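name: query_chain
kind: protein
chains: 1
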Amino acid sequence: MSLQPLSLPGLSTAFVRFFNVVTLTTDGSAVEGTRLGVVSHSAAGGGYDAVVIAGYTITITDNDFNLAFAAASSSSIEGNLGTTLTTVTVVLDTSGQTLTSAATVEVFRSGGTATPITDFTFASPETVSFPSGSTDGTTLTVTVTLVGDTNDEVIETVILGL
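structure:
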C-alpha cells in the first residue's frame, strides 16, 4: 500500500491510498463457466462524499471440462456374416467455453457379455483427443466392430467406459 498525491478538480491536493488487488483462483475440476468479481470503492467524509470511484471487474474464465458419452446405451444388429460398424460418440462439455489446451480421454472396454474377437473388436483403450480451440458440444467418435455369425445367441453387451 502506498500514499500518492491526487489532484481533484475544485479540491486541494488529496492523498489517496492505492492498493494492489490480487486475484487468487483455484484450478478445480468442476465445470463452472465464466464468473465475474467486482471490486468497488467509496470515498466518504472530508468533502469527498460526491466523488465517484469506478469499480473494477475481474473476469474468471473456467478452464475445466467434462467428457461423456452422448447416450447411455445404443443397440446394433450384428448380422449373420461379415462385420457391422457401430459408432459411440464422446461429447465435450466446457460450459460454453473454448478449450485452451487439448483434452484427451481413453475409451476402454469395461465389461459386457460379448466375447472379444468372436463377437466384436475394439482397440481398448482407444484415445480420443479434442484439440485446443474445441468448443462446447464438440463430438468425436470411436468405433466398435460387430462380428456377424449364424449362432443363435442371447442379446450380448459391450460396456465401454471413460
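note: The chain has two domains: 7-63, 66-161.
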